[in-house]
Protein: Ig-like domain-containing protein
Amino acid sequence: PAWFWGWGSGSHTFQETLGCELHEDGTRRGFWKYSYDGRDFLILQPETLTWKAVHPAAGNLKNALEEEPREIKIKKAKTEGDCCDQLLSYLKFWQEKKAAFPLLNVTQKENREGKVTLRCCAYSFVPRDIKMTWLQNGHALSHSDHERGIIQPSGDGTYQTWVSIDVHSEESNYTCHVEHQGRNQTISVPLGPVPEASRKYWVLAALTFAGVIAIPFVVFFCGARYRERRQQQDGLPV
Structure:
C-alpha cells in the first residue's frame, strides 16, 4: 500500500537490479539494489549485511528487509557467487574464442662489447598479457639481465613485443620461454659463430669511421705537397 512505501498516489515504477564485477586481483564484488521511478531507492551493503536507504521513502522497506537476515545472505551469495561464476565462464569462453597465440622468432647479433645479443620477438598475439623470459640450462635468468620492449599494437588487432639479453659467445643452452593464456612455448638458441652478415656490419662501420678520420689527413698531405712543388718551381724557399 502507498502508506507503507511512503509514496503519493498515482503510478510509479519500482525496479530490482543485481549484478557483479570481477577484478584483476581475483576479488569479486556483487551489488543488489532497488530503484523508484528511475532513482536509487535501496542498496544492499554486503559487508554489513544491511540495506542503505538512499531515498526519503525507503525507511519502511529497509526495516522490513532487515528483519530477514537470511534473505540478505542469499542475495549476497547470488551476486558474489553464482553471478561471478557465470561471468567468469563467459569471460573464459570469449578469451579462448578470441585468443591468438604468439609467433616467435629469435635473432642473434654480435654487439660492440664483443658479446652476443639474443632477441626473442613475439608477434600476432591476443589478448595483450604475455610473459617472456630467457632461460639458461632450463633456469630463468635474472630480470635485471633482460631488456624488454613495450607491448604495442601491430595494427591488425594483435600485439607484439620482444625481450633481449647479452651473453658471451662461448656460452650455450639458451631458451626463450613465453607464457600466454596459460600456454607455454619455448624456442632454443643454438649459439655458434655469429652470422657473417652481422660481422660485416661492424667491419663496415669501423672502416667507415676510419675513412672519415683519414680523409682530412690525406687532403692536408696532398695540399702541403702541392704548395711545396709550386714554391720550388717559382724559386722560392721551401
In short: The domain at 103-189 is CATH 2.60.40.10 (Immunoglobulin-like).
